[in-house]
């Protein structure tokens, strides 16, 4: 009797009391609400822009930019279009973020390990560094480093010249670089080939070790390959020795490569600040690996290097990677503070473009899209790496 | 009873709002003061001194309007405004007149619903350099590093100038004025570019102002003029002719010191201007002696200029374009008759 009633209720359950159907309804409701709000905002904005007869759209990207940019990885002049000016800013942001992330990971790892050192002095120095740099706002640090560079260094005419062809002044660090020559292109290709060979070699060495137990010195071979191949290439290319040496001409140095104080201050500020956070992440990761693992590894006779590479790091990385990713994203996003110290990053260039064209909505949209692209691609890469590192459960 | 009270309040509010819809002149006379929008932080143009007294070329121009309407230079209240808020404040009626080193442009005059009056300062973008650089002209700046304050047109003006002269430049663009000035004084850049009046202000706060000079080249036109709401023609006339009275007085040789003697002058132009011969006051709807009062209480344009920004002040700006037309400048007043 009882079961019969139960069966009946479950068959004729009211639409409103069925959690599945209800949740679908909620979802539809939420989607409608979102669509309405989006439509309202967009149509309202469009109507207002029309009323004030403000032009909309991305047509301005094709117009002449008519402003100069301090430093650029690609050829650029005021006669170029806005699209090109924005690419210059994009590449500048990419450059500072990429080098910044690279240096931050190295410095952060080093500090994190130092923080766990049994040596009292090293340990306390690392702890002091972390506390100091973590607790001061990044903007202040940027101002400090920038002021440090332009206040401390002499003018170009009194530039420091510690070694031949290298100058240090308040216009930046200027040094000689090899004169452009076709052989450098082939050298770059040689490096690429070397990387591919190393990748294959590592696979082969692993396989051989699995089969025969014999280890192959992959590390040393890799170093020889990555230096040797381009060098051989350079020799065959006629070993060009011409250098583009900086010479003081007029107001500034001509020739060579310049690292501006703005770039240096931004990079230094970002790296020193973010490395303090990365150090804590690394420390947490290492401490998460139980002590028994180290003891067991030592008991089976692994060398300290092997212990770190084969036992500790693979396990620690699993804990480190997710928070490390968010620190990398932080560094990229913080690079937009460049505006404050005059480094022409994407936000700075886009800001000028907005000022000149009045296309604020489009400009801000571009800024958002660019940072979204940076962040999503960093995340995608780190997620892939994380998946590779994740524990293989059997 | 209560309902009646509410109704009375409503009616008063309604009456007042319709009153406000009338001309700014009646509005100003009813409340007893003029609300003037000023810069608030630009030394020499609009800034309160350490005692809280407002000083500057723009402030004195506003005082001329106050004298014209009320016969007293102090019937003013100042609203410091930023570059972003200045036009909205005027459009919305928060202020009655805008004296805030605004460049008159076509689009502001039309699309923003403003009317610009007589220019009270002809400015333009220039270059500030350290004297030890040994540069005498902006044409010698090829390859220079230029500190630029990002503004609406500063970056474009300077890029245009260098391109037009076939020169190369290396800009350093820093958003904060103080930070930019620090970098320039420390020698990060060879020169600093901005409106010439602002350059003078920047030089005044340099560790050693004598070490810096402004190059003679001016690379853009920035006529700074007071503005009123579009469509209020009587109010516009009053602001316009208050500023023009300053210029006309200088042209006629009338200063705050000799204005009383000038009342006895036989020159019909001076007689008409000072209200000895009646006519101009009635025409504009003010006291017959409004011009006399302005000069007596505020001084002529030359006096105002020298007092606030002139060669003997911290800013040390020469008259240049702001000299009278008779001295090769652009200051020119239509006749007061």
Describe the structure.
The complex is a heterodimer of chains A (394) and B (337). Chain A has 13 helices and 7 strands. In chain A, 69% of the residues lie in helices and 5% in strands. Chain A has 394 residues and is mostly helical. Among the domains of chain A are: 82-136 and 261-389, MetI-like (MetI-like fold, Orthogonal Bundle), CATH 1.10.3720; 180-240. The model of chain A has no long low-confidence stretch (mean pLDDT 87). Chain A has a 3-stranded antiparallel beta sheet with strand order 1-2-7. Chain A is globular and about 70 Å long. Chain B is α/β, with parallel strands linked by helices. Chain B has 2 domains: 20-122 and 224-327, D-Maltodextrin-Binding Protein, domain 2 (3-Layer(aba) Sandwich), CATH 3.40.190; 125-220, Periplasmic binding protein-like II (D-Maltodextrin-Binding Protein, domain 2), CATH 3.40.190.10. Chain B has helices at 2-21, 24-31, 57-70, 86-91, 106-110, 154-164, 177-185, 196-204, 233-252, 259-262, 268-274, 280-284, 290-297, 301-308, and strands at residues 34-38, 41-42, 46-48, 54-55, 76-80, 97-98, 114-116, 121-123, 125-130, 144-148, 169-173, 191-195, 212-214, 222-224, 227-229. Chain B has a 5-stranded mixed beta sheet, sandwiched between helices. In chain B, strand 2 and strand 3 (46-48) form a beta hairpin. In chain B, helix 3 packs antiparallel against helix 13 (290-297). Chain B is globular. The model of chain B is unreliable at 10-21 (pLDDT under 50). Chain A binds chain B through residues 52-53, 66-70, 78-79, 143, 146-147, 150-151, 155, 170-171, 249-252, 254, 261-262, 339-342, 344, 348, 351-352, 355-356, and chain B through 111, 133, 141-145, 150-153, 155-156, 158-160, 162-163, 169-176, 179-180, 182-183, 186-188, 190.
């Amino acid at each position: 009797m009882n079961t019969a009633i139960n069966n009946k209720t479950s068959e004729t359950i009211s639409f409103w009391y069925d959690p599945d159907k209800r949740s679908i309804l909620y979802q539809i409701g939420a989607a409608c609400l979102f669509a309405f709000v989006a439509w309202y905002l967009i149509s309202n904005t469009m109507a207002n822009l029309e009323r004030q007869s403000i032009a909309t759209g991305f047509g301005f990207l094709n117009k002449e930019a008519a402003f100069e940019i301090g430093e650029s990885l690609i050829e650029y002049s005021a006669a170029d279009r806005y699209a090109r000016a924005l690419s210059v800013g994009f590449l500048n942001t990419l450059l500072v973020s990429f080098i910044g992330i690279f240096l931050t990971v190295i410095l952060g790892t080093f500090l994190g390990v130092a923080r766990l050192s049994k040596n009292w002095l090293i340990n306390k120095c690392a702890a002091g560094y972390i506390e100091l740099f973590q607790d001061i706002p990044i903007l202040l640090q940027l101002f400090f480093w920038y002021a440090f560079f332009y206040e401390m260094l002499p003018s170009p005419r009194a530039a420091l010249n510690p070694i031949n062809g290298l100058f240090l002044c308040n216009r930046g660090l200027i040094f000689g670089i090899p004169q452009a020559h076709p052989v450098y292109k082939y050298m770059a290709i040689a490096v690429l080939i070397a990387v591919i060979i190393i990748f294959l070699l590592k696979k082969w060495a692993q396989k051989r070790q699995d089969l025969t137990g014999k280890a192959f010195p992959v590390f040393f071979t890799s170093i020889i390959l990555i230096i040797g191949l381009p060098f051989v290439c350079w020799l065959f290319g006629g070993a060009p020795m011409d250098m583009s040496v900086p010479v003081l001409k007029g107001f500034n140095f001509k020739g060579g490569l310049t690292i501006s104080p703005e770039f240096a201050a931004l990079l230094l500020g970002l790296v020193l600040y973010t490395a303090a956070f990365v150090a804590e992440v690394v420390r947490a990761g290492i401490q998460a690996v139980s002590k028994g693992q180290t003891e067991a590894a030592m008991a089976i006779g692994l060398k300290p290097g092997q212990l770190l590479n084969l036992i500790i790091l693979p396990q620690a990385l699993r804990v480190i990677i997710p928070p490390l990713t968010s620190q990398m994203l932080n560094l990229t996003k913080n690079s937009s503070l460049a505006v404050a110290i005059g480094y022409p990053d994407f936000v700075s260039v886009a800001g000028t473009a907005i000022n000149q064209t009045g296309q604020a909505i489009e400009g801000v949209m571009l800024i958002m899209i660019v940072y979204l692209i940076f962040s999503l691609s960093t995340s995608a890469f780190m997620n892939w790496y994380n998946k590779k590192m994740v524990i293989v459960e059997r | 009873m209560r309902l009646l009270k509410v109704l009375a309040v409503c009616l008063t509010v309604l009456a007042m709002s319709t009153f406000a819809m009338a001309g700014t002149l009646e509005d100003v006379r009813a409340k007893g003061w003029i609300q003037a929008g000023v810069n608030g932080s630009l030394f020499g143009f609009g800034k309160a001194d350490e005692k809280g007294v407002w000083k500057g070329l723009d402030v004195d121009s506003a005082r001329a309007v106050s004298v014209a309407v009320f016969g007293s230079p102090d019937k003013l209240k100042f609203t410091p405004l930023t570059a972003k808020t200045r036009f909205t404040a005027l459009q919305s009626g928060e202020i009655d007149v805008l004296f805030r080193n605004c460049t008159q442009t076509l689009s502001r005059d039309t699309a923003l619903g403003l009317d610009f009056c007589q220019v009270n300062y002809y400015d333009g973008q220039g270059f500030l350099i350290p004297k030890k650089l040994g540069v005498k002209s902006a044409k010698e700046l090829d390859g220079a590093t230029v500190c630029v304050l990002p503004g609406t047109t500063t970056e474009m003006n300077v890029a245009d100038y260098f391109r037009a002269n076939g020169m190369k430049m290396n800009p350093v663009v820093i958003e904060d004025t103080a930070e930019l000035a620090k970098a320039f004084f420390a020698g990060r850049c060879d020169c600093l570019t901005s409106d010439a009046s602002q350059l003078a202000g920047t030089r005044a706060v340099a560790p050693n102002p004598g070490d810096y000079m402004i190059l003679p080249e001016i690379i853009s036109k920035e006529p700074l003029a007071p503005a009123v709401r579009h469509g209020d023609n009587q109010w516009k006339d009053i602001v316009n002719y208050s500023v023009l009275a300053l210029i006309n007085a200088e042209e006629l040789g009338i200063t705050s010191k000799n204005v009383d003697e000038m009342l006895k002058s036989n020159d019909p132009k001076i007689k008409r201007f000072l209200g000895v011969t009646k006519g101009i006051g009635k025409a504009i709807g003010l006291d017959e002696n409004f011009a006399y009062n302005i000069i007596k209480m505020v001084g002529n344009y030359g006096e105002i200029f020298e007092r606030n920004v002139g060669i003997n002040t911290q800013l040390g700006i020469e008259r240049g374009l702001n000299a009278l037309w008779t001295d090769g400048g652009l200051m020119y007043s239509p006749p007061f008759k």
